[in-house]
Specification:
The chain folds into 3 domains: 104 residues, no CATH class; 124 residues, no CATH class; 116 residues, Endonuclease, Chain A, CATH 3.40.960. Helices cover 49% and strands 8% of the residues. It contains 18 helices and 9 strands. Strands 6-7-8-9 form a 4-stranded mixed sheet. The chain is globular and about 65 Å long. The N terminus is likely disordered.
Length: 357
Amino acid sequence: MGYYDRDSRYNNFEIRDTPESHFKNNYISKWWKREYDKLILKYVHNWHWAWYDAMCYDFPEIIVKDINEDITKHWKNTDPLCSRYPNAWRHTIETFALGRYLKLKYNKNIDKPKRKHCRLCNNLFTEDSLPFPLLHRLNKKDNVHFCSLCLFQAFLDKGNNNSTAEEIIHHFQQLSEILQIIPFQNFGSSPMHFRGLDLNQIERVAKLFIHNKPSLERIKKVFGSWLNCLIKSKILSSDVRETNRGTHCLANDGHACLSLGEKMIDDYLFQNGIEHQKEPRYPEGKFRADFKVDDIFIEYFGLSGDKDYDNRVATKINLCKKHNIELIQLYPKDLLNIAKLDKKLQPLHIVSKRMSQ
């Protein structure tokens, strides 16, 4: 396989030593869709000089998940690049995507990395000096206004092992105010946590973490648990109860919730004036949904991965299809911040407005 110069990698990808056959892979061409080319272009628009790193992060998994499992298996068994090296399927897709990028001339209008002053420390840095694990937290190229040192300190550093109880409480009250949602344990440790945050929110979170981030060990030592820390910070009321299936608590409108995820959703509906019913029955069986707004069911599937739970989820989804019920499926990744939750529940605002007329 070929490789790329660091200096030329962001200069329209001058490729060396990569056989053209890797770009013209006939085995992949058989199942490749035009939609995948559009997805590559989306990476280019969002990331410009960093598009290839962004694409490598999740593009192969997205593609394999989209195509039929039998097609995937047949391709991996027949494509010499995959059959010879079973773990090389990701790189095979990445290389083919790079070939599509070149053939479709997506490299014509790529912005080059710029020199900027970091908005956190004011030091000069070059955009492409950020390693992608940090860059990815910024969601897109237009948000690159922070140097790698500041981002590392904010999001990869373990935090202060000497924070006082008052400092920890203040930290989480501020974090909750920025996110407009209940902060969860280890917020900031994954790029997924920042999906939906705008540049201003990312900057505010980074400043907060640099100046006042307590370590997880310190939080547990001072408060005993993450949950107790949220209670002491008055982010949660004191009537919560932990069980092996979730955290039982009351939403702001008085509805009983079986998890913090349910409470976040209920509080969102209440704060936005969206009338909702708790635990409506499905048309058949003994199943109940989490919420109902007009004729729309809302389910929070927070325990995905458990076999019995996943079977119940599948049954509920099939019941909704059978009875033509519109279903909004929510997962933990949708509750990372208020912007992400708002986007997923946007249809409810339209329904609520219609109901109130």
